[in-house]
């Protein structure tokens, strides 16, 4: 059974018929061709598929595309076009917060959502760590990623 959805993806209106059980990650990757959303585990454990839905970081492999009818979705491609991306890129480079890059889209979208959160200045390192722990990285550990996020959130190092 297919269901019609209409949503905004990276600021562009999109309408499609999707299978009722289609995951948002599949809709983004297969239907819209947005391959930056990485799917590794498919079970919501790794967080590499994280996108922003109505301002909140969510795992797209656990979200049905049909649940996003009428909602605003931002993928890593959308963040790359946004005003926050140059700062994210610079902080990741300055703090050596990336290695192989597979998890990077999940971190970029998660941190972009944090940067837009009104309470961002109040986040401690533990809270930053808790939020980014939803994305699994096997290369860097999280110290450098927390440092990059801390810098992006306007916290002193």
Structural class: alpha+beta
Rg on CA atoms, Å = 15 Å
Overall geometric form: globular
Q: Count the helices. How many?
A: 6
The total of beta strands comes to 5
What share of the residues lie within helices?
25-40%
Uncertain residue ranges: none
Mean pLDDT: 91
What is the makeup of the main sheet?
5 strands, mixed
| CATH homologous superfamily designation of the largest domain | Beta-grasp domain
- Approximately how much beta-strand content do the residues carry? 15-25%
Spatial strand sequence of the major β-sheet:
2-1-5-3-4
The CATH topology of the largest domain is given as: Ubiquitin-like (UB roll)
* Overall tally of domains: 2
How would you portray this structure in words?
- This is Aerobic-type carbon monoxide dehydrogenase small subunit (CoxS/CutS family).
- Keywords: 2Fe-2S, Iron, Iron-sulfur, Metal-binding, Oxidoreductase.
- Residues 3-79 form the 2Fe-2S ferredoxin-type domain.
- GO terms for molecular function: 2 iron, 2 sulfur cluster binding; metal ion binding; oxidoreductase activity.
- Pfam families: Fer2, Fer2_2.
- Helix 3 (85-94) crosses helix 6.
- This protein folds into two domains: 2-75, Roll (Ubiquitin-like (UB roll)), CATH 3.10.20; 80-152, [2Fe-2S]-binding domain (DNA polymerase, domain 1), CATH 1.10.150.120.
- With 157 residues, it is of the alpha+beta class.
- Strands 2-1-5-3-4 form a five-stranded mixed sheet.
- A hairpin with a 2-residue loop joins strand 1 (2-9) and strand 2 (12-19).
- The protein has helices spanning 24-31, 76-80, 85-94, 104-116, 125-132, 143-152; strands spanning 2-9, 12-19, 50-53, 56-59, 72-74.
- It is built from six helices and five strands; from the N terminus they run E-E-H-E-E-E-H-H-H-H-H.
- The mean pLDDT is 91.
